[in-house]
Amino acid sequence: MxxxxxxxxxxxxxxxxxxxYIAFARLREEDPIHRSDLGYxxxxxxxxxxxxxxxxxxxxxxxxxxxxxxxxxxxxDVMGQRGYKWLSEVFLMQDPPHHTRVRGLVTxxxxxxxxxxxxxxxxxxxxxxxxxxxxxxxxxxIARFAYELPVRVMCDMLGIDPEDERLPAVIDAIAQxxxxxxxxxxxxxxxxxxxxxxxxxxxxxxxxxxxRKAVPQDDLATAxxxxxxxxxxxxxxxxxxxxxxxxxxxxxxxxxxxxxxxxSFSRFPDQWQSLVANPAxxxxxxxxxxxxxxxxxxxxxxxxxxxxxxxxxxxxxxxKILTLxxxxxxxxxxxxxxxxxxxxxxxxARHLSFGGGIHFCVGAELARLEGxxxxxxxxxxxxxxxxxxxxxxxRDGFLFRGMSTLPARW
Length: 410
Description:
Blueprint: H1 15-18, H2 21-30, E1 33-35, E2 41-43, H3 46-54, E3 59-60, H4 64-72, H5 82-89, H6 98-109, H7 112-117, H8 119-134, E4 138-140, H9 141-146, H10 148-158, H11 167-177, H12 188-214, H13 220-226, H14 236-267, H15 269-277, H16 279-293, E5 300-304, E6 308-310, E7 313-315, E8 320-323, H17 325-328, H18 364-381, E9 386-387, E10 407-409
Parallel strand pairs: 2-8
Antiparallel strand pairs: 1-2, 3-5, 4-10, 5-8, 6-7, 9-10
Helix pairs in contact: 5-12, 6-13, 8-10, 8-18, 10-14, 11-12, 12-14, 14-15, 14-16, 14-18, 15-16, 15-18, 16-18
């Protein structure tokens, strides 16, 4: 930790919503191992963020209840809140051995082969969505494309009818309940809503898995039911928890990636012209550069599992560390001209947006595939696409970065 005193970092700082990268840069350059007045450490350089995320011996998720009480106080009944109880059971929030078992079963169902086999179907879904809006000449690309694509892909994979009349309520429930991932004290109203909406999601997916147990199908839901042996299979509650996580993360973060990418292209129109000129050559690189430049996940927390050090600063056992992924992704020590959006960047894949180590994103390959197809087809079919860059409608919250609307014309 340096002798320079920068203002204490707080995720609730209103200025972070419009542009977090100014504060990120100051931390990264002046106080890379920062002690927040909120009681945790903040790391911001690429090397340090990656080091924490990759180091399973010294850093993990830690005690879930204590982690949440950091924001609410010692007397807060964490497990009495339905939203937090669900979150405590998500394997992403757990350490080995439970994390190892559940993640292994999930990756055994969501195989690379299954994801690759989805490409023709993803292309079909993408083109149908573009067909539905191409003639209008303008519209909201978040609602009409960025959300619709990953939702329909996840429905297809899980065997959910995309025209199911319950689906709008499920999608709304994801948006209102996933706020429990935010590392802050929710308002009473936010927490009450999250608790209610998690119930909506649990009811929906309980029915889905009851149906798949009775009548198996060739889909991911059935593959999850059948994962593992008789003694190691996912329980009914685990199936529901995993499905909510996959469905929610599968469309929330991918939708933000698409929206953030389109905004970045309109701010760097020369890069859009490069993609339009050769979509097949640049689409894959576009995904990595979007994830680096304007990631849909800009930070995540870890807990010190034992006393350790970062850059000579002692981190005590049990202390929390906020890893600023968005800051590391723009570290000039790793990326040349990091504040420029360059789809030809040769090391963009060194971004940190999928996490690292045992918590590396299980849906990374699917997200890359969806993003590659989306950017390739949009550049091919809507080459004149431009979005409004004047006042992006960034959503509330800190950890996840994306927009609620994105007006565009084409």
